[in-house]
Structure formats: structure tokens, C-alpha cells
């Protein structure tokens, strides 16, 4: 097992015309399960490949435990990687696929190798497949073999590169749990790359969010969800996405009045939440961010309500999503038994402790 320390990691391609990863700093603790998430092209795979030793870093350092592995060959790094496409040898049996790495990197006897493969196969529930070739296996079985192949090597670090992308939705959910169980059982430090924010949120002890090659935020899923550091993180984490509206702030008493820039509504944050900042924010523009579950229908109009029209009611079983005519796209998540009709005018309010204000210049969350 091992901690991982990344300092100022940078990766350029094509003579520096593409910067895939820039100034990345990470401290990962021994035994942690870290998920790395971000949109396509944000540098997730490049980061993982640099950690694995499959891609040299342009700048920066990587330590695994106390050892500087920045310039070490992949096979000397004590890491095992699970790929999206399984990367099994097609002509070898499951047993041979799982044993191959051991043969190459250890001097274990054939009996010891067999015992390790059997043990890992048992852990993954694939003992009965050991004689099969990969083309006889389903996608889920192949991924179990790929995981089993990593386990037998008993590495200090597991690296997962979107390992469940090729599986159907139901199997993905099962395999997520399997991987989590396995990681807990083995306690191996793990880094798991995915473009699926829900997967990242449910699996990670902590979640690393990248955008455009740069680290945006690292934190526990709940912390990142509730306190996004900037507008990008607020919008990327959570589904349906956080609602955003352009507003102008005015100090009123010890609170802040937020006026939608096209005059659609005014909403006043009380002094309890806006008091410390009301004069410093006054006169400035912001992007107000509010998650769909923090928008609530209300009966009486007031300083903290917005009058709006229902455009679409989207039932999802447990709740209803109301699409409202505020800004470009605005969704309220309400209880399933609240069912207004399209075209109805309703009053809504925001749970004020969950109102975010992002700076339009820096994107940073100022409230
Ligand atoms: P995805 O989710 O689509 O797999 P990603 O977040 O894993 O994306 P990377 O594959 O790490 O992103 O790519 C980061 C950036 O580096 C992208 O702009 C990509 O085009 C570029 N890139 C990646 N590999 C190379 C390469 N071998 N040569 C040139 N550019 C590359």
C-alpha cells in the first residue's frame, strides 16, 4: 500500500502546442479511493497514464510512498492499471491472462502463482472461467478477469481508466459496488478515472475535478456538492445541473437584494446569509447558482419569492422536475404529488442557505 504525492505535474503534447495537464498538485493517502472526473479532454487519462508510467511527464514529480517514481519505468512502479477495453490477451486463457504479469515480474514458483490466481479468481467469482478464452466471456466477465489480473500482482496502487464504460447500466452499478468492496477489502490506494460525475460521487472517498488540464477542486463528494469552489464545479457536479441566473446585487439593510439582470425577478437574501458581504458585493454582477432541489414552491409572494410559469412537468417517479421560464434552463425538483400544469403561474423560493453567488470574472464562489 502507498500514498501518492504529485507536484506541479505538467504534460505537453505536439511540441507544447497542446497542454493536457497543467500544474497539478495532489496528496493521496495510503488506502484512499480517489475518483478523477471532468469533461472529455480535461486530462484525466493523461494524468493516470503519467501515474502509471505509460507517459512521461513534461514537468513535475510523482512520489509513491517515499519513492520518487517520476522517471521509473511502468513495471517498476508497483501499480496495476485496469483499462476500459480490458486489454486481455485474446489467445491466452483466463488463467494465463491472470498469471502472465506474475510470471514476468516475480520469481514465484508455478505453485505459488497458481495459488495466487486461484485466490484472486475466487475473490472475483470467476473460478469457473479459468479455462476460457476472452472471446467466450461477456463484458462483465472480462472486466472481472482484468480486475483479477491486477489483484494477483498485489500492487501498492490500483489505477482505473473508465473501467465500466463498456458495460450496460445495470452491470455498471453492480460492478461499481464490486470494485468498492474489493478496494475496501484489500485497502489498496486507488485512483479511478471516469467522465460520469455520478460514478465519481458514489465511489470516491474524495473526488478530484479537472477542467482544461487544471485542477478545480478536491474534496469529499458531499463537500464538493455543497460547497463548489467555482461555477464550473457547481455546474458539473449534480444532475440535473445547478441552475444559473445573472443577477445584480444591492445592499438592503443588512441583506442583499439580487435583481435578475433582465428584470424578471428580485430575491432578497436575509442578513443571516448575506450580512457579512452585503456592502462589499453591492453594485456588482454575479451568477446566482441554486440546485434544483433547493428551489421550493410556495403559496405567498414576498421578498424571497419569484413568480414564474411552468413550461414542462417531467415526472421521474420519486419526484417531478419542473422546467420554469427563468433564464435559459431552470429546473425545480419537487415532490411527486406536487403536479402543476404546463402554463400555470407559480411562486417559488430558494433555500437561502444554498444560494451561491459566482463571480462572472473569475467564476469563483463568493457566497
Ligand atoms: P476523455 O474523457 O475524452 O478520455 P480525458 O479527460 O481523458 O478525455 P486526455 O485523453 O487526457 O483527456 O486528453 C487531454 C488533452 O490532451 C486533450 O486535448 C487531448 O486531445 C490531448 N492529447 C491526449 N493524448 C494526446 C497525444 N498522444 N497527442 C496529442 N494530444 C493528446
Automatic annotation (TrEMBL):
Entry's Gene Ontology BP terms: carbohydrate transport
Superkingdom per UniProt: Archaea
Catalytic reactions on record: D-xylose(out) + ATP + H2O = D-xylose(in) + ADP + phosphate + H(+); L-arabinose(out) + ATP + H2O = L-arabinose(in) + ADP + phosphate + H(+)
SMART domains: AAA
Main location: membrane
Entry membrane topology: Peripheral membrane protein
EC primary class: translocase
InterPro entries, A to Z: AAA+_ATPase, ABC_transporter-like_ATP-bd, ABC_transporter-like_CS, ABC_transpr_MalK-like, ABC_transpr_MalK/UgpC-like, Mo/tungstate-bd_C_term_dom, NA-bd_OB-fold, P-loop_NTPase
Residue stretches making up the ABC transporter domain: 4-237
Residues spanning the signal sequence: none
Listed GO MF terms: ABC-type transporter activity; ATP binding; ATP hydrolysis activity
Family note: Belongs to the ABC transporter superfamily. Carbohydrate uptake transporter-1 (CUT1) (TC 3.A.1.1) family.
The protein's assembly and partners: The complex is composed of two ATP-binding proteins (XacJ and XacK), two transmembrane proteins (XacH and XacI) and a solute-binding protein (XacG).
Protein name as catalogued: ABC-type D-xylose/L-arabinose transporter
Lineage: Archaea, Methanobacteriati, Methanobacteriota, Stenosarchaea group, Halobacteria
Protein encoded by which gene: potA
Amino acid at each position: 500500500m502507498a500514498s501518492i504525492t504529485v507536484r506541479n505535474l505538467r504534460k505537453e503534447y505536439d511540441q507544447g502546442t497542446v497542454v493536457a495537464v497543467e500544474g497539478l498538485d495532489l496528496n493521496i493517502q495510503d488506502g484512499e479511493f480517489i475518483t478523477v472526473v471532468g469533461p472529455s479532454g480535461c486530462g484525466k487519462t493523461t494524468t493516470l497514464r503519467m501515474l502509471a508510467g505509460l507517459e512521461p511527464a513534461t514537468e513535475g514529480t510523482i512520489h509513491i510512498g517515499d519513492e520518487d517514481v517520476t522517471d521509473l519505468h511502468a513495471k517498476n512502479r508497483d501499480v496495476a492499471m485496469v483499462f476500459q477495453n480490458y486489454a486481455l490477451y485474446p489467445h491466452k486463457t483466463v488463467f494465463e491472462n491472470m498469471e502472465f504479469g506474475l510470471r514476468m515480474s516475480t520469481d514465484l514458483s508455478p505453485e505459488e502463482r497458481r495459488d495466487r490466481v486461484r485466490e484472486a479468481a475466487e475473490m472475483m467469482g470467476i473460478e469457473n472461467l479459468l479455462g476460457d478464452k476472452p472471446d467466450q466471456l461477456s463484458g462483465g466477465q472480462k472486466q472481472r478477469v482484468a480486475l483479477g489480473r491486477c489483484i494477483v500482482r498485489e500492487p501498492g496502487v490500483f489505477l482505473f481508466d473508465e473501467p465500466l464504460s463498456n458495460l450496460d447500466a445495470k452491470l455498471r452499478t453492480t460492478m461499481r459496488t464490486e470494485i468498492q468492496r474489493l478496494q475496501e477489502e484489500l485497502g489498496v490506494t486507488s485512483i479511478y478515472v471516469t467522465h460520469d460525475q455520478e460514478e465519481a460521487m458514489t465511489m470516491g472517498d474524495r473526488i478530484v475535478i479537472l477542467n482544461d488540464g487544471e485542477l478545480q477542486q478536491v474534496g469529499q463528494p458531499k463537500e464538493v456538492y455543497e460547497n463548489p469552489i467555482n461555477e464550473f464545479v457547481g455546474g458539473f457536479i449534480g444532475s440535473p445541473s445547478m441552475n444559473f441566473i445573472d443577477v445584480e446585487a444591492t445592499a438592503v439593510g443588512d441583506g442583499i437584494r439580487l435583481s435578475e439582470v433582465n428584470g424578471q425577478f428580485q430575491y432578497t437574501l436575509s442578513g443571516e446569509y448575506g450580512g457579512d458581504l452585503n456592502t462589499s458585493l453591492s453594485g456588482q454582477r454575479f451568477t446566482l447558482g441554486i440546485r434544483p432541489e433547493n428551489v421550493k414552491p410556495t403559496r405567498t409572494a414576498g421578498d424571497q419569492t419569484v413568480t414564474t410559469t411552468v413550461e414542462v412537468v417531467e415526472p421521474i417517479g420519486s419526484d417531478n422536475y419542473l422546467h420554469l421560464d427563468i433564464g435559459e434552463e431552470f429546473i425545480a425538483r419537487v415532490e411527486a404529488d406536487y403536479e402543476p400544469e404546463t402554463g400555470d403561474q407559480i411562486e417559488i423560493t430558494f433555500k437561502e442557505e444554498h444560494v451561491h453567488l459566482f463571480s462572472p470574472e473569475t467564476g469563483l464562489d463568493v457566497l
